[in-house]
Amino acid sequence: MEHEEYSLSNGIDENGSYTEALPPETHNFEFHGNSLEYFRIWFTNIFLTIISLGIYAPWAKVRTKKYFYRNTILNGEPFDYTGNPYAILKGYAIIIAAFIPVAIFQHLYPEAGGLITILVYLCVIPYLIYKSLKFNARNLLYRNISCSFKGTPGESYKINAGLVLLIPFTLGLIFPYWDFRRRQYIFSNLSYGNAAFDFKGGAGSFYKYYTIASLIPLLFLFLLGFLAGICYFAMNQADPQMLINIFPEIAGKDLNSIWIAAAVVAYIVFILSIMAVKQYIFVTLTNYTMNSLSIPSSMTFHSDIKIIKYLFIQFVNFLAMLFSVGLLYPWAKVRKMKYVTECMTVTAFADFDSFVAVSTPDVSAIGDAGADLFDIDIAL
Amino acid sequence: MIYFDAVFLDGETSTAKKVKCELGHGILIIRENYDSALRRVDISKCSIEPALGKTRNVIILPDGSRCETFDDRPLKSIRKERGNTWDIVHAFESLWPLVLLGIIATGAAIWAFAIFGIPLIGDIIAPNIPVQVLESLSEKTMDSLDEHLLSKTDLPMEKQQKLTELFEKHKSNMDSALDYRLVFRKSEILGANAFALPSGKIIITDALARLYKSDPEITGIFAHEMAHARFRHGIKSVIQNTGVFIVVSLIMGDFTAMNSSIAVLPVILAESGYSRKFEKEADIFAGEYLIKDSGTNKPYRNILKRLSEKSNFPEPPKYLSTHPATDERIKLLESMDAALNP
After folding, report:
1. What average pLDDT does chain A have?
2. Which candidate from A41, A317, A353 shows the least CB-CB separation from B13?
């Protein structure tokens, strides 16, 4: 995870005198939000969304994003999200309207429908991803300067249709490469004001992390096998004495409830193993992506999320939400965001004041809305 | 006149200037130092961001520059003048008792909608679905069942005929909107079982056909299954489950994928609840039909008991089950009998 060392050579300014480059300063991202505050915002969002039969949803989304962006601080200044809820509402309306004929068609002709649906998605999703990236970049504000995204729809099609099509044909082997190209598309086309980002990542590291991740379920397999054994014994009521010898407590208890208890625990373990893989990928690839990110000659980014700590945070979050029927979601989300955000740092070789805005036209929200409704994960 | 400190971001460079501001007589003046003014604007031409937790207040000037301050005083007076609706939202978010009340109210509303609202939607839509749609849906389901779960019947022809005659006799007492037919299939997985497709086609497995000991027993089963078709339980089930899916999606919209596994539980509870309600309706109809036909529904109770004893599967816990517990069903039928035969 090396990044280029920027040499602190002196430059010459327009008067011909030597200028000294700044000594690099490292700044931590800070997160100032707290779960009590966010709980009230989150709950109000749900309440208003329900009584407005969903119309309030774009405003809820904007409010949530604003809360997290505005509470993220870098070098004393917060970020902001400038998405327009009306634009997002319009986007939702267009996507839903376009989706209804597809859904009806799918229902009437399920055999042909499946293929047609895949085709429609392959033709539409890459464009929505492109639009969504443009929209979200345009609405990311720091010190009143917005970002911009200069990627092309064509490249999105190559990656999100072309490479995606290859995934089943390569039995999934091309997946890490697709993830790499996807992130490269996002970050190498991003600019903050007049300063373009540079993404120096390589596909090799993605393969490394995905390979390790795929070995994680083996750890859980042992546990699952053990539980499956208990299920088998209980279900077939085969020689309960053997089981009672191992677990004397269950003698006399209803074997039915043991079967059900073991099945429930097995289900939870199964879910946890999938989650562990997902969290591992998130941690390693977020770290790698940020560490490969820079603004040449002025900023380098770093992320150092610790896997064990993050897994622990997510595990406690999962238990909390399970036992609170989802009510502790705001607490869980703030906890996670705070940790992930504060693991990120920026090393600045240039003044934070030195960026200049570039006039960027407003972007329609249709891509962002589409990404939401189709649950496409555009983020890091 | 309100004097306050702020940070000024001009939107052209990323510099954050510490400034001193004055707000009075509808004019906002922003100064970097005491002699010159960076900006002098009519406050009515500025837009104010809604208050959000403890984040900085944001005043956006007409040229896109921003004046941000932690000082609430200037914003209080501006927002009061404008009567910003967002402040109602912000107030709601800030008052704990309101939020707690809101949680209870929302919980009650969702529960009431799930128990009454969604079934009502099912009751309204289901009768309006044309029979042809029910037929085509049932045919598709039948094809899928024949492919995966069912095989050709092994029942001898006379037994099939006997059952079909009995079925036809009772079918004439049902409404004529649906074309009730009896078909025979074999299935190891399903064991002794019967089910109804929305079109009125009733499927009975060989194991069940061999299990009954008297005509009234199997008549009870026929009546129960025909009731499912007659009362459109199949199609209502589809409508109601879709309703649950939409409501859950609306609520879960703000959630990440990790929580979707937790969302499954309320969905299963809701769907099982609807299913048990339909089973109860069908049982009541079958019980009443048997009482009208032969004076008692005891034969139906007997076969239900026999079915549960022979079952391949242990009974799932009460609230996850698609059927009420067998004991419960028998008790209900008994009480119907007792009411008419004291």
Report:
1. 81
2. A353
Q: Using one digit for the tens of pLDDT, what is the confidence trace for B66-102?
A: 999 999 888 887 877 776 666 667 776 677 777 777 7
* Contact check, Cβ <8 Å, A353/B16: yes
ipTM score for this prediction: 0.77
CA distance A156 to A153: 5
Note whether A326 contacts B14, CB cutoff 8 Å: no
**Residue A321 exposure: Cα atoms within 13 Å on the Cβ side:** 22
DSSP state of B21: E
C-alpha B6/C-alpha B3 separation (Å) is 10
Q: How far is CA B278 from CA A358, B122, B176, in A?
A: 63, 12, 21
Q: How far apart, in whole angstroms, are the C-alpha atoms of residue A38 and residue A333? A: 9
Contact assignment for A71 to B55 by CB distance below 8 Å:
yes
Q: What gap in Å lies between CA B301 and CA B334, rounded to an integer?
A: 8
Dump strand ranges (E) for chain A: 11-12, 18-19, 25-31, 72-74, 77-81, 140-142, 145-149, 190-192, 195-196, 198-199, 293-295, 299-303, 344-348
What is the token pair recorded at A28?
């931590």
List pLDDT tens digits, range A38-68.
Answer: 988 888 888 788 778 778 888 988 999 999 9
Q: Which residues contact A287 (CB under 8 A, 6 or more apart)?
A: A1, A303, A304, A305
Question: Which residues in chain B have Cβ-Cβ distances shorter than 8 Å to A314?
Answer: 258
**DSSP result, A150-207:** ---HHHHHIIIIIIHHHHHHTTTTTHHHHHHHHHHHHHTTEEETTEE-EE---HHHHH
Considering CB atoms only, which of A61, A67, A260 is closest to B52?
A67
User: Which residues from chain B sit within 8 angstroms of residue A45, using beta carbons?
Assistant: 254
What's phi and psi for A326, nearest 5 deg? 85, -10
What is the rounded distance in angstroms from the CA atom of residue A156 to the CA atom of residue A166? Answer: 15
